[in-house]
Every structure is written in C-alpha cells, then in structure tokens.
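hi! just following up on the protien thing from before. the input was this:
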Amino acid sequence: MSDEPEKSSLYTGGGDTGKTSLLGGMRVAKSHPRMEAIGAIDELNSAIGVAIAQLDSADLAEMLTDIQNHLFNLGAELAAERHGRMTEALRTNEEQVHGLEVLIDQMDSQLPELKQFVLPGGHPAAAQLHVARSVCRRAERELVRLSESTPVNPQDIAYLNRLSDLLFVAAREVNRQHGLLDVPWRKG
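and the predicted 3d structure came back as:
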C-alpha cells in the first residue's frame, strides 16, 4: 500500500505555476485581465448564491438563479479563445440586457420613490444583494479593463451595468417585503 494519496479529478496541478487554460487549451497567467474578469464574474455569481440562500421570495430566487446561469454563460464566453459556434449560443445579446431593464422597471414601480442615496443593509438578503451589486460593479470594471486590450462583446458590459442596477432594486424590494425602510445616507 502506497503512502501517496490517490489523485482526485478535482485537481490537476496544472495551475500550480500561476497559469491556467482557456477553453481551447491556450495557457494564460492567472493574473491576466481575462482571468481577472472571469474571476470577478465567478465571485459575483457566488455572492448572488448567498443572497438566494437567504431569500423568502421564490419568484426573486428564480429570477436570480436565471441570472446565475447567464453569468456562467458569460464566464464561458470570456474563457473561450475565439468566438466560434460554441460560444455564439452563450453570447449576451440586446434582448437579455432589455430583459433586465424590464425587471428593474417592474420592481422599481412597487418601491417608494428614491429621493436620496441609501446605505446598504436592512434584511440579511438585502444586505447580501448590496454586496453582490458592488461585486458586479467590480466585474464590470474588470471587463472594461479587458476590453482595452482584447475585443469584448459590448453587450456583456451593458449586461453587467444593468445587473448592478437590478441588484440594487432587488435589495430595496427585499427590504420592502420585510417591512423595512431604506436607511438614508446622512451627509457630513
């Protein structure tokens, strides 16, 4: 019997040198702007998952789960070396961006008018949606940074921009559902 543990299929050791593989096999540094954008989108997806785990609303959870699936597609699109037929089905399009706008408008119409900035917080699920919103903004910045050196689908950037707005409105909606008021920012 060997003292060596059996190798798991979960780890390969291929990234031990600080490089990782894109879909198609090309190796890049883990610090490459493409990997920074993919990592931020992965972190966003996880932050949304934590929010879903705290929600009481099945409708909101379903909407956010659909968004999580799209974020996986977006990450796969970014991980592909080229935009071939495989990634065409994954590409963000104007309809998906517009779909977020419709959801924002629907939720926002149920909320009190916003007359000032509000602090992140309230119900734990709302607070987590605010965390997801701020991670979304970072993912958007990373994607913009990537676009400065590599062609990026402009709808991906638009999608993340709208998604951060949706997450803000969703946080406010969760607070409304729990009878909690937004906490206004006090200047000074």
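Residues 23-108+116-178 form a domain with the Hypothetical Protein Ta1238; Chain: A; fold (CATH 1.20.1200.10).
The two ends are 69 Å apart (CA to CA).
cheers
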